[in-house]
């Protein structure tokens, strides 16, 4: 049981965030006449174990809690937050948000969400068993991951870090405009990073496994991924310059979709910061490209029943057969565009305010069984990219300019061939969407806001020797 | 924040199960920010956060717990959680007494002024007007102001007791220009370890005009070239080249795990003789400046590369202890919720004696980088990228057409050897450095300099 609806809470499991809902209700109840107040409260516990050379390098255990309050008075918004739920900070935080509101520009579109009647789809994101796992088992798992990774291949020179981590997070959102929602979520991960060596050459690789708790984490998967990625790059040289089709592996595809997502924000569109602005109904991608954001899919890493303003998350079609369908909105950006919220508000915890964003982007997959090998075979010749750097410095979702550092392997005769490094891959996001060559059927929900699936994009400029 | 007798009892509790070292790091941070976007003051935000992180080191293992509860009971609970790693370990319990000097800090409290919310809004509006007045092509302006005060208190089982107060203020302007070729962006930021007096030194109008002129200039930009070309980096264009090309690789946590191309190279030539690289947390009010680091060690000046020869790495407490030496004052953390790591402060190349204009004039064909964005490095291989946000072609020794944004890619040890000219026009720029999930403010600096060849990741063939 996880993100629970109001009705479900009555019979919900013990230990749910009922007390957080009560706390949020109490603070929202301090609103003055003429004020809209929204109270978001959150708390969490986390454990992290890092293993190194057969010992625990660090063990972190922590709890945290905080509150974020938005006040709207006369269409002016103020915000304040505190990293504590102590009684003494609650009133102070509300007063500070109220004071901040007085300084903002009045804007008819500024308002809090009101319930829109869309029922929330319950998604199960809570694993009760996590709380019962003793720290000693978490330590054992991190140590085992480190040991097996070190032994996996004679070319593994170093395991820089082998981590186990878990988080249990609960939150509640209550407003004077009728919003009342709560959610709770557990997650666990294993991650390992290695250095492979052969003579003087060294290469790195990382692998991970994620889940909703302790059970189901797969250390073999993390080890294999890290080792394979590092070892197959050994002997890499600077690749050749030229125009090429580029195959992005599933992890890189997740990163690409995440970048595209910022241009699909209704706020970016309204403010003239998206290359998609004014193009609804037009062909913006290859006819084989269909893109959907569906946070109600429980397999999605960032799945959620409610958005960050307490409205039900829902499926939103963004691009269908290459034609732009629309954008993602929260309440304010929707009002600005003259449309209702699409239930797409996201926020960075209690210290952030909501804005529209994706949670679970996925491309309509290619045929079942059309995996990485299938895409490589279809492409024949090109470049396979397994890691990218400089996504923050060389990709501009406003202009669409795209230029990243890359590592990977050449594709020859439909197979992976020699490794290459120290090259860049460049195009524009606009051109990349139109130049889609293949979408794998190998959907995998990776950490982040988008699914992983092998992608091939044509006509990219490679810069190397 | 916390009385010494309480700290002594908490440290004693932290070592109750044994352990070699215990530390309390307490932090009280308040921040406020304001954002003007699309012509409106959209959001004023205030935040307050306080808490303590407690670590216990037992052999090779560190136990860490943090709490937002600064009462003695809250701290004792965190100490008990952190001490779990020492259970069954050696060391034996002992009583901690704090005898070290207090207040290693800079006493910034007395110096810094806090502007009012109305003052901040006035600055935002002035920046917005200046940017929009730059040209009809400017279609959108966002201006942001942020200020924070961070008080830290560090006590450890060696008897150290230190504190610092750090005021930091930043102002940024980001512009979009719209033309026939689509949209382009410009971004400028000013950030110092200061309070509101930052604005005695920085003109927000000038900042806005620089951001808008970048966006406007790029409307007529041509695609950046691909392949290897000479690159001239303007003075203060980022300095991020050194941050990525070698700064991270000189952090001792990478060195002790043999995860850096610079491991084992002290005393060896690793760069052109024109390169003297310094990391210095004491420089004026630069963005990476502080009084004491987050382990209570005073900031200091560290020479990393001298005339091309590697002289030392950067150290925090834990890695220095392993090597039987002292920390270089580079133990930093994002907040009380994080363990400290080896981090840079202000990292810069000392100026040379060439003339900046002459360097360009003596470059027949290449790329002139007026401003850099971010970068990223793999310390193990040394491969790094850094992005341009304002660059031009150099043709026949003259700066000509603007270029669209692109990443440049290189290998640290190779690129450092390709520096063949360094000018006198030194300046610093602020940045945010991310490592292992933690962000800290840093400064980067350099004078105009030339690289004989770097791979440019443009779309032109």
Keywords:
heterodimer, A: 465 residues, alpha+beta, PmbA/TldD fold, 2 domains, 6-stranded antiparallel β-sheet, 5-stranded mixed beta barrel, 11 helices, 36% strand, globular, B: 461 residues, 20% helix
What is the strand arrangement across the widest sheet of chain B?
Answer: 3-2-1-4-5-6
Tell me roughly what share of residues is in helical segments of chain B.
10-25%
Largest sheet of chain B: 6 strands, antiparallel
Strand content of chain B: 35-45%
Walk across the major sheet of chain A and give the strand order. Answer: 3-2-1-4-5-6
Low-pLDDT runs of 5+ residues of chain B are: 103-110
Number of strands of chain B: 21
Oligomer: heterodimer
Q: How would you sum up the global shape of chain A?
A: globular
Describe the 3D structure.
Chain A has 11 helices and 19 strands. Chain A has 465 residues and is of the alpha+beta class. Chain A is globular. The termini of chain A are far apart. In chain B, the strands form 4 sheets. In chain B, strands 3-2-1-4-5-6 form a 6-stranded antiparallel β-sheet. Chain B has a 6-stranded mixed β-sheet with strand order 10-9-8-13-20-19. Chain B is globular, with a radius of gyration of 24 Å. Chain B has 2 domains: 99 residues, PmbA/TldD superfamily (PmbA/TldD fold); 232 residues, no CATH class. At the A-B interface, strand 2, strand 3, helix 3, strand 4 and strand 6 of A face strand 2, strand 3, helix 4, strand 6 and strand 7 of B. Strand 3 of chain A pairs parallel with strand 2 of chain B, so a sheet runs across the interface.
Per-chain topology:
The complex is a heterodimer of chains A (465) and B (461).
Chain A: H1 6-10, H2 18-28, E1 35-52, E2 55-73, E3 76-82, H3 87-101, H4 135-150, E4 156-175, E5 180-198, E6 201-211, H5 219-231, E7 237-238, E8 242-248, H6 250-261, H7 266-270, E9 291-293, E10 316-320, E11 323-324, H8 331-337, E12 345-346, E13 355-356, E14 361-363, H9 372-379, E15 382-389, H10 391-394, E16 401-412, E17 415-428, H11 429-434, E18 436-439, E19 455-463
Chain B: H1 4-14, E1 21-37, E2 40-58, E3 61-67, H2 72-82, H3 108-111, H4 117-132, E4 138-156, E5 161-179, E6 182-192, H5 198-201, H6 204-219, E7 226-233, H7 240-247, H8 252-256, E8 277-280, E9 301-306, E10 309-310, H9 317-322, E11 331-332, E12 341-342, E13 346-349, H10 356-361, E14 365-377, E15 383-395, E16 398-403, E17 407-411, H11 412-417, E18 419-422, E19 427-435, E20 438-446, E21 449-457
Parallel strand pairs in B: 7-14, 13-20
Antiparallel strand pairs in B: 1-2, 1-4, 2-3, 4-5, 5-6, 7-21, 8-9, 8-13, 9-10, 11-12, 14-15, 15-16, 15-17, 17-21, 18-21, 19-20
Helix pairs in contact in B: 1-2, 4-6
């Amino acid at each position: 049981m996880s993100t629970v609806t109001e009705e479900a809470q009555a019979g919900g499991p013990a230990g749910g965030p009922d007390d957080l809902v009560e706390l949020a209700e109490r603070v929202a109840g301090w609103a003055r006449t003429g004020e809209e107040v929204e109270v978001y409260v959150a708390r969490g516990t986390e454990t992290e174990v890092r293993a190194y050379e057969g010992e625990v390098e660090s063990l972190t255990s922590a709890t945290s809690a905080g509150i974020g309050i938005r006040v709207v008075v006369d269409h002016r918004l103020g915000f304040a937050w505190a990293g504590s739920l102590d009684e003494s900070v609650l009133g102070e935080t509300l007063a500070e948000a109220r004071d901040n509101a007085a300084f903002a520009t009045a804007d008819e579109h500024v308002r809090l969400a009101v319930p829109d009647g869309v029922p929330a789809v319950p998604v199960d994101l809570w694993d009760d068993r996590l709380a019962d796992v003793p720290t000693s088992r978490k330590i054992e798992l991190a140590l085992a991951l480190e040991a097996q990774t070190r032994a996996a291949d004679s070319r593994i020179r170093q395991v820089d870090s082998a981590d186990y981590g878990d988080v249990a997070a609960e939150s509640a959102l209550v407003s004077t405009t009728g919003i009342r929602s709560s959610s709770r979520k557990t997650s666990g991960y294993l991650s390992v990073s290695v250095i492979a060596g052969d003579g003087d050459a060294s290469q790195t690789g990382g692998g991970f496994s994620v889940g909703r708790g302790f059970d189901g984490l797969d250390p073999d998967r993390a080890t294999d991924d890290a080792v394979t990625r590092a070892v197959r790059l050994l002997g890499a040289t600077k690749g050749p310059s030229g125009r090429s089709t580029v195959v992005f592996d599933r992890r890189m595809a997740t990163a690409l979709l995440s970048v595209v997502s910022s241009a699909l924000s209704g706020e970016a569109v309204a403010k003239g910061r998206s290359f998609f602005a004014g193009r609804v109904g037009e062909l913006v991608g290859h006819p084989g490209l269909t893109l959907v954001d569906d946070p109600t899919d429980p397999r999605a890493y960032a799945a959620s029943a409610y958005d960050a303003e307490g409205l039900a998350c829902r499926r939103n079609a963004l691009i269908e057969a290459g034609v732009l369908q629309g954008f993602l909105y929260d309440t304010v950006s929707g009002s600005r565009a003259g449309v209702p919220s699409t239930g797409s508000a996201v926020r960075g915890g209690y210290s952030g305010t909501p804005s529209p964003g994706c949670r679970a982007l996925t491309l309509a997959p290619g045929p079942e069984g059309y995996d990485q090998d299938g895409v490589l075979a279809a492409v024949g010749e090109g470049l396979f990219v397994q890691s990218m750097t400089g996504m923050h410095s060389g990709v501009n979702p406003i202009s669409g300019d795209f230029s990243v550092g890359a590592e990977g392997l050449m594709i020859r005769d439909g197979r992976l061939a020699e490794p290459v490094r120290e090259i860049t891959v460049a195009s524009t996001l606009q051109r990349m969407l139109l130049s889609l060559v293949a979408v794998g059927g190998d959907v995998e929900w990776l950490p982040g806001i988008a699914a992983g699936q092998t992608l091939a994009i044509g006509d990219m400029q490679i810069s190397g020797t | 924040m916390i009385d010494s007798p309480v700290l002594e009892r908490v440290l004693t509790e932290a070592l109750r199960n044994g352990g070699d070292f215990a530390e309390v790091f307490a932090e009280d941070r308040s921040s406020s920010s304001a954002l003007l976007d699309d012509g409106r003051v959209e959001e004023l935000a205030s935040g307050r956060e306080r808490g303590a992180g407690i670590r216990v080191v037992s052999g090779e293992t560190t136990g860490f717990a943090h709490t937002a509860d600064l009462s003695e009971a809250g701290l004792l609970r965190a100490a008990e959680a952190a001490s779990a790693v020492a259970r069954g370990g050696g060391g034996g319990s002992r009583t901690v007494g704090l005898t070290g000097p207090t207040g290693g800090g800079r006493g910034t409290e007395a110096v810094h002024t806090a502007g009012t919310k109305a003052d901040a809004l006035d600055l935002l509006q002035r920046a917005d007007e200046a940017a929009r007045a730059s040209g009809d092509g400017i279609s959108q302006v966002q201006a942001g102001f942020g200020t924070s005060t961070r008080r830290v208190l560090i006590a450890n089982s060696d008897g150290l007791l230190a504190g610092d107060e750090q005021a930091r203020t930043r102002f940024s302007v980001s512009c979009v220009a719209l033309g026939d070729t689509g949209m382009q962006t410009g971004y400028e930021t000013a950030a110092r370890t200061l309070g509101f007096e930052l604005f005695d030194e920085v003109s927000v109008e000038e900042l806005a005009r620089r951001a808008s002129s970048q966006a406007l200039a790029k409307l007529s930009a041509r695609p950046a070239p691909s392949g290897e070309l000479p690159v001239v980096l303007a003075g203060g264009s980022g300095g991020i080249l050194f941050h990525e090309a070698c700064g991270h690789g000189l952090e001792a946590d990478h060195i002790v795990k043999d995860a850096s191309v610079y491991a084992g190279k002290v005393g060896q030539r690793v760069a052109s003789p024109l390169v003297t690289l310094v990391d210095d947390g004491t420089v004026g009010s630069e963005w990476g400046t502080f009084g004491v680091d987050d382990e209570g060690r005073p900031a200091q000046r560290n020479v990393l590369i001298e005339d091309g020869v590697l002289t030392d790495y950067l150290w925090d407490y834990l890695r220095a202890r392993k090597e039987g030496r002292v920390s270089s004052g580079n133990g930093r953390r994002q907040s009380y919720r994080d363990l400290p790591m080896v981090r840079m402060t202000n990292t810069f190349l000392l100026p040379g004696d060439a003339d900046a204009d002459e360097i360009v004039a003596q470059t027949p064909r290449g790329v002139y980088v007026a401003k850099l964005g971010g970068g990223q490095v793999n310390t193990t291989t040394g491969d790094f990228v850094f992005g341009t946000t304002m660059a031009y072609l150099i043709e026949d020794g003259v700066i000509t057409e603007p270029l669209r944004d692109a990443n440049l890619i290189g290998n640290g040890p190779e690129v450092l050897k390709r520096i063949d000219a360094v000018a006198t026009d030194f300046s610093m720029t602020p940045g945010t450095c991310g490592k292992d999930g933690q962000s800290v403010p840093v400064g980067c600096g350099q004078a105009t300099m030339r690289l004989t060849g770097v791979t440019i990741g443009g779309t032109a063939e």
